[in-house]
Design a protein that fits this description.
The complex is a heterodimer of chains A (about 160) and B (about 850). Chain A is of the alpha+beta class and about 160 residues long. Chain A is built from 4 helices and 5 strands. By secondary structure, chain B is of the alpha/beta class. Classes of the chains: A alpha+beta (about 160), B alpha/beta (about 850). Bound molecules: iron/sulfur cluster (3 copies) and FE2/S2 (inorganic) cluster.
Chain lengths: ~160, ~850
């Protein structure tokens, strides 16, 4: 069907400015995207990113290598080898999480009886080497004394206490 | 019937001794059940499938009602009663699940948790802990106490972790203990040991070894297993792997001949621990430390990983192809040029019965030689096979569990705790529960003294005289059965020494004691005679075996009740599938049937003849599979020169050993946990074990090695693994022993005791209590019990010679000399010495001559 003259006028002269109006309207608004990687967004408090391992205030590692996180992990991403320290206490000689397998469900954090492992806000996990995805204890332990990173607020004191 | 934890309920075992029992009927949770009189309410409930939580109850221990966890409600009882210690009575009405009972049990648990540190994350028992399970079940998740918990720290000066090492292997954490006293009860009731005790009372109870002592008894590993919580743990499993991570494989102890059933826990190509797998017919659920820790050699870093070939006097690594083709080439050469009689094979007693059978088939059927043996530790000067009497007693159809029905057991020449851990415990059980009388006759005092009514110590090398004396006593006093006087008089003429008096004088035991033993044996309804390792290791064992045969016939002792006990995990299996030069007619027939071919004609040689013949250059090629005669066979220098003389020696073993050092080709061999197979234990019981882990890439199993040599020699054995398994099982099943001939009597003549004027002390060589064979020195846990070789000496003798504990002593015999540290024996009293031959660092066998055992002199080495 042949287009009428008015049809042509409607789609160009009138519709174009209307559409461009929307565009120009947003040019002067504050953008919603971030200039990643120059700027990074603040994650939600309960965001589950890269794991970190906590320490006690005196610097000793909280993790005792009990294996409960590995037992809870649905992706079988956690591997550990316990050992005995000079004091005769149990500690993790090897503690590794395979970040390719991990589904960031946070079950490990839930399971941990020592409040040793948490999922933090770190999300930049890309790597060009598969081995680079195996995070060892050194990669995950927080430094001591802790400089700027605050302790994670614990959101899970909700179990009903009954007897 | 399966009970708690999948264990079979043992109500029957606990209450009867083969006799029918009166029945009582009671009601539990509304259902009626009839049980034997004497059964506890707990066992009755378990039979009905009702679970009652327990801590201190154990099916094999007497109930003491210490923990109060098993409370139940019994009608007309004023208070809840403990089910484990309440006997079922007719008309009793029991409830196990009322609210009141649940409350009572929660109360008990709360008290148990009063001082409990709640350190499950670090506790090795976590995941298999009764306290965890019960607390979880009763939902106690909140503490009501406002005071601090008791904490038992051994060293008050430090804030160290609360574990205390109370033995070479055992670690105690008192905070976790629920004072069920199972550990102490096991030690006392079952093992007869008193090295663990409870100190203080109530809340302050401490389980500990006696001051200055350690808990290091031979069964000590069991306390870790029966502790319901993590109060007792061991180094072996300490902080290794969580139990739910480890896979479990059914296995057997690979060392001694009792065939104790174990469970191997493994993961990531590593064995982590062994626990017992209760088998009431054999071990009752208690295993010795060797069974528990003796698996560790499999994971040793010293394992051989690649074949070695001797080139210009040095062993260098080579590939499997190279090694196998060299073996096949040399074996072929020897066979073609000198005949198959110049080839021989020796196999260790802990290779699986399948390996032993294939070995037999390879040598007999393919290489056509009868030069085969599995007895690599004992002297055998008697020609190509043992005597008739010896064989008959060796293969007696004995059952361990039947010992409970014995009324008299005569242990002849055995330190049972060392040689036969399971039989030892069974004997103790028979003694404790059923009043079995035990008599022992040994060359030295042993651990069994406490259950023995008369412990006779005969002078070294006079066991034949002793048994001749016993026969004299029987004939003189007319204790014999089944024969008439003329026959008895005839038997008496076949004895040397010719009178009881002489015999008693020679073996140094008073006549009355021998007569008394004869009397007790003749009056018994179901007497047993068990001969063990001292007997087997004695040089003139054939003469003594004749005596034992006569004795059994004179007293009409049942065929199954007089036995010479085999010594290694598969000694009996190797015997049954015919790894020995001469075969029984029955076995010959079976083999000809299976192979469809006649067996080779030549008479064949046993171990000592093979070694002798190699010295005479009549044997050129020898294949040793999993054995170390250079370290274990008596007369080290002789064995070494025999091995040196060989043209071609192939040794397949797990480790580099004194024997493999002489080999032209060394092949790395897989251990028992790296293959599946079966062992035939001392009773002739065929038991399977499963493969727990894959062997390293460069390691092959005995079966693979034999197959590949055969293939390279163009001899097809034509047996895949399944067929091999079936065929072996058939042959073991078809084995028939020639029964003891009741009318037959053999000569019993004491041999001349060799002159040993300048060498006054008798040396016994054998296994240390915590070692077995030559592989256990690769087990770190066992090395913690006995880390180094020693000279065991009686305190009396030591005092006489001015020897202290730990002083260096030079030991010298006609064949060799050695310097060792002295150690006072707990048992020895006379002029007898003992050295373990489990350590490759000492060549103990160099001190022992083949003809007459070891006579030595010792002197203190001056301190330098
Ligand atoms: S976040 Fe989930 S998947 Fe990842 S390691 Fe923890 S439990 Fe495993
Ligand atoms: S992180 Fe927590 S749960 Fe995981 S092993 Fe360590 S202590 Fe146990
Ligand atoms: S240490 Fe273990 S077995 Fe011994 S009394 Fe305590 S809880 Fe019972
Ligand atoms: S199990 Fe009955 S009182 Fe302990």
């Amino acid at each position: 069907m042949l287009k009428t003259f008015w049809d042509i006028i409607k789609t160009t002269v009138i519709a174009l400015p209307i559409g461009l109006y929307t565009t120009f309207k947003h040019v002067f608004k504050k953008p919603v995207t971030k200039k990643y990687p120059k700027a990074k967004s603040e994650m939600m408090p309960r965001y589950r990113g890269l794991h970190y391992l906590e320490r006690y205030d005196d610097g000793t590692e909280r993790c005792v290598c009990c294996g409960l996180c590995a037992a809870a992990c649905p992706a079988d991403a956690i591997y550990m080898e316990p050992d005995e320290n000079e004091k005769g206490e149990r500690f993790a000689k090897v503690y590794e999480i395979n970040m390719i397998r991990c589904i960031f469900c946070g079950f490990c954090e839930e399971a941990c009886p020592e409040e040793a492992i948490f999922l933090g806000h770190e999300f930049e996990l890309a790597n060009d080497n598969r081995d680079g995805f195996i995070y060892s204890k050194d990669d995950m332990l927080v430094e001591h004394p802790r400089k700027d990173r605050p302790y994670k607020t614990i959101y899970r004191r909700t179990r009903r206490h009954s007897m | 019937m399966q009970g708690r934890n999948g264990l079979p309920v043992c109500v029957k075992n606990m209450s009867d001794n083969g006799k029918e029992k009166e029945q009582v009927t009671l009601t539990i949770d509304g259902k009626e059940i009839s049980v034997d009189k004497g059964t506890t309410v707990l066992d009755a409930a378990t039979l009905m499938g009702i679970h009652i939580p327990t801590f201190c109850w154990h099916p094999k221990l007497d109930s003491i009602g210490a923990c109060r966890m098993c409370l139940v409600d019994v009608e007309k009882f004023p208070k809840p009663a403990v089910a484990c210690a309440t006997e079922a009575m007719p008309g009793m009405i029991v409830r196990t699940d009322t609210d009141e009972i649940v409350k009572a049990r929660r109360g008990v648990l709360e008290f148990m948790l009063l001082n409990h540190p709640l350190d499950c994350p670090t506790c090795d028992k976590g995941g298999e802990c009764d306290l965890q399970d019960n607390v979880f079940h009763y939902g106690i998740d909140k503490s009501r106490q406002a005071f601090t918990r008791r904490r038992v720290i051994d060293d008050q000066t430090t804030d160290a972790f609360d574990d205390k090492r109370i033995g070479p292997e055992i670690i105690r954490n008192m905070n976790r203990c629920v004072t069920c006293y199972k550990c102490i009860r096991f030690n006392k009731e079952i093992a007869g040991e008193y090295d663990l005790g409870a100190y203080e009372r109530g809340n302050h109870t401490v389980i500990d070894a006696a001051p200055g002592e350690q808990i290091d008894n031979f069964y000590s590993g069991n306390v870790v297993e029966i502790c319901p919580v993590g109060a007792l743990t061991n180094t072996d499993w300490r902080y290794k792997i969580r139990n739910w991570k480890a896979k479990q494989t059914l296995s057997l102890c690979s060392h001694d001949a009792d065939g104790q059933n174990i469970m191997l826990w493994h993961d990531q190509r590593q064995l982590w621990r062994a626990t017992s797998r209760r088998n009431d017919d054999i071990d009752d659920g208690w295993i010795c430390n060797i069974a528990r820790y003796g698996y560790q050699y499999i994971n040793s870093p010293d394992r051989l990983k690649t074949p070695l070939i001797k080139k210009e006097g040095k062993q260098v690594p080579a590939s499997w192809d190279e090694a196998i083709s060299l073996i096949s080439k040399r074996f072929k050469e020897i066979k073609d040029s000198k005949g198959s009689v110049c080839l021989a094979g020796l196999i260790g007693g802990n290779q699986s019965v399948e390996t032993a059978y294939l070995f037999n088939k390879f040598f007999r059927n393919k290489l056509h030689t009868n030069n085969l043996d599995y007895r690599l530790e004992y002297i055998d000067l008697k020609g190509s096979d043992e005597t008739e009497a010896y064989n008959c007693l060796y293969r007696a159809p004995f059952t361990i569990a039947d010992l409970e029905q014995a009324d008299v057991v005569f242990v002849f020449g055995s330190n049972f705790i060392k040689d036969h851990p399971a039989i030892n415990l069974r004997l103790r059980k028979a003694y404790r529960k059923f009043g079995t009388k035990v008599y022992t006759a040994n060359p030295v005092e042993t651990k069994s003294a406490d259950i023995s009514l008369d412990e006779m110590i005969y002078s070294p090398d006079t066991e034949t005289a002793f048994i001749a004396g016993l026969i004299h006593a029987i004939i003189d006093n007319k204790y014999y059965k089944n024969i008439d006087e003329t026959k008895a008089a005839e038997v008496k003429t076949m004895l040397a020494p010719a009178t009881l008096d002489e015999a008693a004088r020679l073996c140094g035991i008073e006549q009355e004691r021998i007569v008394n033993l004869a009397k007790v044996l003749s009056e018994a309804n179901n007497p047993y005679i068990l001969a063990g390792d001292y007997f087997v290791a004695s040089a003139k064992r054939h003469r003594t075996a004749n005596g034992m045969y006569d004795l059994a016939n004179l007293l009409g002792i049942k065929d199954s009740n007089a036995i010479i006990l085999a010594s290694q995990a598969n000694s009996m299996g190797a015997d049954r599938v015919g790894v020995r030069p001469r075969l029984t007619e029955n076995l010959k027939k079976t083999l000809i049937d299976k192979w469809g071919e006649e067996l080779p004609e030549s008479p064949g040689s046993n171990t000592s003849q093979i070694l002798n013949n190699s010295l005479d250059e009549e044997i050129d090629g020898l294949f040793i599979l999993g054995a170390n005669p250079a370290m274990r066979y008596p007369d080290g220098p002789f064995v070494n020169s025999a091995l040196d003389k060989l043209d071609f020696l192939v040794v397949a073993d797990l480790f580099e050993t004194a024997t493999s050092a002489k080999a032209d080709v060394v092949l790395p061999l897989a251990g028992w946990a790296e293959q599946s197979g079966a062992y035939v234990n001392v009773e002739g019981r065929y038991q399977k074990f499963e493969k727990a882990q894959d062997a390293d890439k460069g390691i092959k199993s005995g079966i693979e090695i034999i197959h590949s040599i055969a293939r390279a020699m163009d001899l097809s054995l034509n047996l895949d693994n399944a067929a091999l398994m079936h065929e072996t099982k058939d042959i073991v099943d078809a084995f028939e022993r020639e029964a003891r001939d009741e009318a037959k009597f053999f000569e019993v003549k004491q041999a001349q005791i060799p002159e040993h004027d300048n060498y006054p002390y008798r040396l016994l060589v054998g296994n240390d209590i915590h070692h077995f064979g030559y592989v256990t020195e690769h087990c770190p846990s066992l090395m913690r019990f006995t880390p180094e070789p020693y000279l065991e000496i009686s305190p009396n003798l030591a005092e006489k010679l001015g020897i202290d504990e730990e002083t260096l002593v030079r030991i010298e015999s006609t064949t060799g000399k050695l310097v060792l540290k002295a150690r006072f024996s707990e048992y020895f009293e006379g002029d007898v010495l003992f050295i373990p031959n489990n350590f490759s660092a000492t060549e103990v066998t160099g001190l022992v001559s083949r003809e007459g055992g070891g006579w030595v002199k010792i002197e203190k080495l001056d301190d330098k």
